[in-house]
Amino acid sequence: MWIDASACGAAGGLIAEAVVTFGRLNAWQQARHTARATAAPLPRLDGFVDPLADSLAALLRVALGGVAGWLLHAEITGVYAAVTVGASAPALLAQVGRATTPAVALHGPDGAQPAALPSPGDGQGPPPTRAGDAGEAS
What we know:
This protein is mainly α.
């Protein structure tokens, strides 16, 4: 059901953001340990975490996780898959947005027809040769 996939996708986005936040807090902790060992002033938390920007990024990641779960609900089988889709939603949706359609691959982004390749008998270049053609000594 799409509601379950959306909720699990949002949970995956939240888990991914928690991992990012843990990395920032871990860097702050390491900087504090280094400062204590050298008797330097302790670094402030706001040098590693920006509450407003990080909160907005977290909300957006949760929303993207929910949207990815909703978009792919027909393809998702199981909670683990839905959480994984949600956790990877920013990269997954960016990749889907960059996907090339067959028409763009054939005609280019401006829709122009590809240049025709010259045929062997149109006088542009030497004709193809094959082993055993006339003119070769046997």
